[in-house]
């Protein structure tokens, strides 16, 4: 118990309330409210509600009721599942392994990113859990995985001035002269060095109870905030619905003074959680404006306006998971890509030029490295909800304008624009994350992103469109019949298919054996042009992450339109250059006016058409 209390104190620099990752972390360590749970227990059933203290004690095996609140426990479960790993959401019990995901969000959860000593945490694990090495113990294995996260092991030193810590202004609560004069021990150990005195105050002094200046009384502020929290909890539906008599809620904002300082200084506003003014976002490359003069859309060849023609499109990452269907705004995509990823499931990237009227876009999922050079063909604003470590050095490049709901490459990077995402209540996480057109605009303003095409990056050359309807009749017998396109061997989970409708000359897309529709309109997705683009690929690691060579000049594929199909080859030379499709005569394929669906197929997995 002594060791447990020691490490609990080390967690004290983390947010207690309203923060999913911290609550998950408490579950990970088996400690909430000072009580240690049995680490071998199966866990709490998903969607469990706690209606009384007796109910809490029965379900969690808790004997010390004085430290528990039914309201708090309900919040633990609710927030915890918002950060659950999608691959495990099908289970009914809270797995300790899910808590690993919380570690990816620690930089946001800590007040300043440096109040928790990870070396001490590692030492604790070595002492308390090391004896379990090699033993099938979920608690030990999870903690070991968390500590091996490279994002935690390679944190840079904080940047500190006389008044700012990592770009955050502490002048309202800290005066270097006052701090120096009232802390004799620091006079000898640090001296009259304002920046180092502030560093000591933020990293140690706050949680040691030291006062930063003469005007701010942290104890009075804590009392005020906790009173507000208690009043809020008492009128919450979670509390008022409990059976009587009930225990009074905790009424506590945090177990750490650092978090009260963070609240007072507005460190937890959505914008500040998402990005700091000192980060790379403020130095993103800006460039001149490209003026698109064509009255025809480069995406569909349909008539367009000057405003729409010069607006940068969105490249939106959307899932194909059965439980995530349907997506909002996907019907606005004028070019839709579908590509396989780890877990034997595909993902979609929707290129949406006309996005300014969308109140709900998504749901949104994470990106992968190979989507980025494809997206760059269109000079888009990339919308995603995190990613993977392989994206580091690319997604955070100065030329990439991305808006991400969490850390941009999963285990690190920034979360540009994260404060402008929202979650719905009609679905469970991770299938309920969205953004609106208004949120995109606000994020672009804050991040300094151009919403008009960038002259240095935009490439006006995309598809070549036929002047008249291209029936592929010019290819004679080489044009094969293709009224149904079966991608079940390419995308074995979704079993995507497209069926030709001769009445309107379009292919209708199915997903999981049903019509794939836009949740906004209820209409099925249709395409005038379908491309299957065979691509060399490889598996990067044991987790199954994939790599696709989307810049190539050696691969082939098929082009489908008007119920016919021809064999093609394709070429892409650089990130911002377009992918060009050629027929077997070496001539560029002429697309028909309308939307295009592109399946990036793993080389060796065949499309079936009839």
Tell me about this structure:
This protein starts with a helix and ends with a strand. The chain is of the alpha+beta class and 610 residues long. Helix content is 25%, strand content 18%. The chain folds into four domains: 2-110 and 115-154, no CATH class; 156-268, no CATH class; 288-447, YerB-like (YerB-like fold, 3-Layer(bba) Sandwich); 464-609, YerB-like fold (3-Layer(bba) Sandwich). Strands 5, 6, 7, 9, 10, 14, 20, 23, 24, 25 and 27 form an eleven-stranded mixed β-sheet that branches. Strands 15, 16, 17, 18, 19 and 28 form a six-stranded antiparallel β-sheet that branches. A hairpin with a 6-residue loop joins strand 21 and strand 22 (546-548).
Percentage beta strand? 15-25%
Ranges with pLDDT <50 over ≥5 residues? Answer: 1-51, 64-155, 269-283
> Which CATH architecture of the largest domain?
3-Layer(bba) Sandwich
Q: CA-to-CA gap between the ends? A: 69 Å
Count of distinct structural domains: 4
The outline comes out as elongated
Q: What class, by secondary structure content?
A: alpha+beta
Task: Count every helix, treating DSSP H or I runs of 4 or more residues as helices.
Answer: 19
The portion of residues assigned to helices is 25-40%
Fill in the CATH topology of the largest domain: YerB-like fold
What is the C-alpha radius of gyration, as a whole number of Å? 27 Å
- Determine the mean pLDDT: 76
- Total number of β-strand segments? 28
**CATH top level of the largest domain?**
Alpha Beta
The main pleated sheet reads as:
11 strands, mixed
CATH superfamily of the largest domain: YerB-like
């Amino acid at each position: 118990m002594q060791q447990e209390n020691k490490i609990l104190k080390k967690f004290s620099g983390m947010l207690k309330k309203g923060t999913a990752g911290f609550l998950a972390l408490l579950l990970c360590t088996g400690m909430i409210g000072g009580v240690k749970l049995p680490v071998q227990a199966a866990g709490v059933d998903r969607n469990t509600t706690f209606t009384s203290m007796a109910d809490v004690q029965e379900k969690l095996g808790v004997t010390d009721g004085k430290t528990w609140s039914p309201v708090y426990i309900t919040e633990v479960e609710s927030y915890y599942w918002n950060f659950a790993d999608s691959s495990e959401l099908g289970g009914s019990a809270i797995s300790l392994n899910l808590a690993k995901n919380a570690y990816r969000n620690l930089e946001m959860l800590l007040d300043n990113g440096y109040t928790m000593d990870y070396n001490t945490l590692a030492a604790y694990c070595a002492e308390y859990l090391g004896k379990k090495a090699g033993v099938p113990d979920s608690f030990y294995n999870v903690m070991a995985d968390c500590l091996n996260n490279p994002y935690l092991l390679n944190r840079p030193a904080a940047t500190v001035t006389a008044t700012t810590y990592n770009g955050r202004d502490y002048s309202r609560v800290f005066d270097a002269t006052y701090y120096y004069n009232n802390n004799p021990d620091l006079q000898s150990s640090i001296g009259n060095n304002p920046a180092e005195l502030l560093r000591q105050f933020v990293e140690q002094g706050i949680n040691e109870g030291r006062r930063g200046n003469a005007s701010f009384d942290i104890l009075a502020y804590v009392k005020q905030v906790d009173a507000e929290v208690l009043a809020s909890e008492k009128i919450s539906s979670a509390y008022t619905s409990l059976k009587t008599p009930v225990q009074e809620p905790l009424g506590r904002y945090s177990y750490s003074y650092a978090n009260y300082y963070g609240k007072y200084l507005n460190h937890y506003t959505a914008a500040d959680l998402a990005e700091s003014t000192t980060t790379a976002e403020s130095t993103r490359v800006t460039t001149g404006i490209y003026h698109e003069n064509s009255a025809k859309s480069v995406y569909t060849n349909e008539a367009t306006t000057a405003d729409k023609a010069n607006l940068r499109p969105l490249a939106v990452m959307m899932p194909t998971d059965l439980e995530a269907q349907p997506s909002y705004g996907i019907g606005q995509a004028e070019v839709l890509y579908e590509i396989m990823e780890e877990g034997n499931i595909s993902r979609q990237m929707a290129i949406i030029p006309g996005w300014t009227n969308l109140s709900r876009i998504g749901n949104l999922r994470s990106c992968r490295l190979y989507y980025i050079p494809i997206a760059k063909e269109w000079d888009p604003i990339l919308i995603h909800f995190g990613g993977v470590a392989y994206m580091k050095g690319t997604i955070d490049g100065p030329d990439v304008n991305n808006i991400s709901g969490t850390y941009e490459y999963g285990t690190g990077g920034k979360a540009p624009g994260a404060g402008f995402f929202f979650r719905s209540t009609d679905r469970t996480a991770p299938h309920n994350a969205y953004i609106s057109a208004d949120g995109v605009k606000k994020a672009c303003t804050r991040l300094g992103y151009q919403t008009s095409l960038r002259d240095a990056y935009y490439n006006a050359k995309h598809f070549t469109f036929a002047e008249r309807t291209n029936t592929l009749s010019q290819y004679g017998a080489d044009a094969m019949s293709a009224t149904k396109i079966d991608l079940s061997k390419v995308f074995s989970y979704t079993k995507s298919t497209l069926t030709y409708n001769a009445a309107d000359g379009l292919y209708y897309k199915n997903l999981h054996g049903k019509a794939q529709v836009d949740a906004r309109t209820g209409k099925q997705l249709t395409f005038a042009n379908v491309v299957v683009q065979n691509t060399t690929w490889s598996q990067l690691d044991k987790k199954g992450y994939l790599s696709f060579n989307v810049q190539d000049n050696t691969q082939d594929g098929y082009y489908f339109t008007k119920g016919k199909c021809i064999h093609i080859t394709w070429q892409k030379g650089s990130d911002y250059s377009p992918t060009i499709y050629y027929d077997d005569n070496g001539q560029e394929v002429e697309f028909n006016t309308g939307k295009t669906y592109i399946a990036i197929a793993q080389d060796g997995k065949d499309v079936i058409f009839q």
